[in-house]
Amino acid sequence: MKLIFILFITTYLSANVKQQMFNLYQNQQYKKACIYGAKKFNSFRHNEKLISLYAFSCLKSDSIDKLSIPIVILKNSKEARENSAYFSILLMQKKLLYRSLIDGYDISNLKLPTTTNIFSKVFDLYLKRDRKKDRNRIENFYIFTDKDDKNIQYKLYLSKNTKSYIINIEEFYNGLQIKKHIYK
Predict the structure, then answer these.
(1) Residue 107 half-sphere exposure, CB side, CA atoms within 13 Å?
(2) What angle do CA 64, 67, 72 make, to 5 degrees?
(3) Are 181 and 168 in contact (CB under 8 A)?
(4) What is the mean pLDDT of residues 170-182?
(5) pTM higher than 0.90, yes or no?
(6) Using CB atoms within 10 A of its CB, is residue 108 exposed (0-12), middle (13-18) or buried (19+)?
(7) If pLDDT is split at 50, 70 and 90, which confidence band does 138 have?
(8) How far is it, in rounded angstroms, from Cα 156 to Cα 134?
(9) For the chain, is the Cβ count within 10 Å smaller at the N or the C terminus?
(10) At what angle do helices 48-60 and 30-44 cross, to 10 degrees?
């Protein structure tokens, strides 16, 4: 009897986590979904669809580093492998851009896949920037114009908190800031 009760509770809690994750994602509460998913991860670690939902929530809340565990786990279906590869590209781009901006490491000769994600777009623009017209030493930022929509610009720069550097990307449409992405 105890076994049946435990199985029932486990199934109920698992369904509740799934519903909560889905609701948060549907309501575009990506940061909350990412935080909730991180807390409840062990309850769905064998469910690749929920792992992908968690990972996309983290991605949409600019928490790229939280993609590392889903990258490793997502491998049993074609869709899971596609998602894993997509997340891997973004995580690698973040690590390389971080190294380039902070350490001055030259990544200009790299040929990497790209995605439609904002971080990936800016990474690609950073790789293709004109180094002769590179940033002014007084100003520690880059301005890029979107290659598909000339009305959109991106401002890339670093800020520093007490522990480490943070990559910031501000999106502008016709000169007005529409979104700021913070990648810790």
Answers:
(1) 23
(2) 155
(3) yes
(4) 97
(5) no
(6) exposed
(7) very low
(8) 13
(9) N
(10) 150
Single-letter residue type at 169: I
CA distance 123 to 132: 18
**Single-letter code of the amino acid located at 71:** I
Distance of alpha carbon 143 from alpha carbon 153, whole angstroms: 7
Question: Is the four-CA dihedral 48, 50, 51, 52 of positive or negative sign?
Answer: positive
Contact 141, 79 (CB under 8 A): no
Beta carbons of 169 and 118 less than 8 angstroms apart: yes
**Which tokens is 22 given?**
């889905």
Across 168-177, average pLDDT: 97
Rounded to whole angstroms, the maximal C-alpha distance in the chain is 74
